[in-house]
Amino acid sequence: MNKLYNYYVPKGGLPQQNQKVKDRAIFKNAYLFIPREVLCDIVTSQLPFWNKTRMWVLSRPMSGFSETFSHYIVEVKSGGGSDHTENDPTAESILFVVEGTLELNISNKSYKLSKGSYVFLPPSIKWTIFNLDTENACFHWIRKKYSFVEGINEPNEFVKNENDVQSVNMPESNCMWSTKRFVDTEDMRHDMHVNIVSFKPGGIIPFLETHVMEHGLYVLQGEGIYNLNQDKIHVKPGDYMLLRAFCPQSCEAIGKVPFRYLLYKDVNRHMALK
Question: Is 59's pLDDT higher than 90?
Fold first, then answer.
């Protein structure tokens, strides 16, 4: 039986003039923290050839910080979408639907996407996407310039749903910490992973992870205390964290519901020598 997961979806709007400014947003050398209250109307972006659509840009490549990917939240109104979605032939993409339904066409093959749908799109592939329903749809769009390796083919496109992917418990975690992986970690064709990480209330990362992989983390559900480079931050659904390489990190799930987030990381390639 399919489980109905809760995914936080921003709705925009703008705070009233009598509301005090909240001070949860943080930008430091090691990380960026964007709280959900920042995702209002006036910080959205539009793209060429996308109709009835707006996007919150959560991350982009920045020299000396996070350098490998971009992450958008895309809101598509009824009748909106694009038949010219990507203008960079080297870009690969992952789409993750958090609200509504969408019609996706990949190389003349159609798919109906719904809540929990997960799509991988290799570079150069032609794809279109439209909202043919009467209600808004929303999806995460993560883009990365694909790192080609001689002798290794590009990965193939695929469409899955979170409901069809088994969670794998982390070792020695007493089933408190688990990950849903949408591709085989041994598949060297892939140079990025976008997973869903889950903690039961009270679950923890029991050490300060300090590694070369960049991270983008969007909180889908639940709350936690995240330790980022010795700063402890209370994170909530809709909050976003962008971590540069080697930023120390750990967390603890708090509250009464699972703490779940969408996690990007770059993998499976040599370090570029500059």
Answer: yes
Burial environment of residue 39 by CB neighbours within 10 A (0 to 12, 13 to 18, 19 or more): buried
Domains and CATH numbers, the chain: 26-266 (2.60.120.10)
DSSP labels, the chain: ----------------TTSPPP---EE-SSEEEE-GGG--GGG-B--TT-EEEEEEEEE---TTS--SEEEEEEEEEEEEEESS----TTEEEEEEEEES-EEEEETTEEEEE-TTEEEEE-TT--EEEE--SSS-EEEEEEEEE----TT-PPPPPEEEEGGGS-EEEPTTSTTSEEEE-SS-TT-TT-SEEEEEEEE-TT-B--S-B--S--EEEEEEESEEEEEETTEEEEE-TT-EEEE-TT--EEEEEESSS-EEEEEEEE-SSPPPP-
Q: Which of 165, 190, 193, 191 is nearest to 178 (CA)?
A: 165
Q: How far is CA 145 from CA 23, 157, 268, in A?
A: 34, 16, 14
pLDDT band at 261 (very low <50, low <70, confident <90, very high): very high
Identity of residue 183: V
Cα–Cα distance, 76 to 103 (Å, whole number): 11
Contact present, 221 and 258 (Cβ < 8 Å): yes
> Residue 232 in contact with residue 39, Cβ under 8 Å?
no
d(CA 90, CA 124) in angstroms, rounded, equals: 6
Quick check: pTM over 0.85?
yes
**CB atoms inside a 10 Å sphere around CB 103:** 16
Where does the pLDDT of residue 23 fall: very low under 50, low under 70, confident under 90, or very high at 90 and above? confident
Position 3 scores a pLDDT of 64
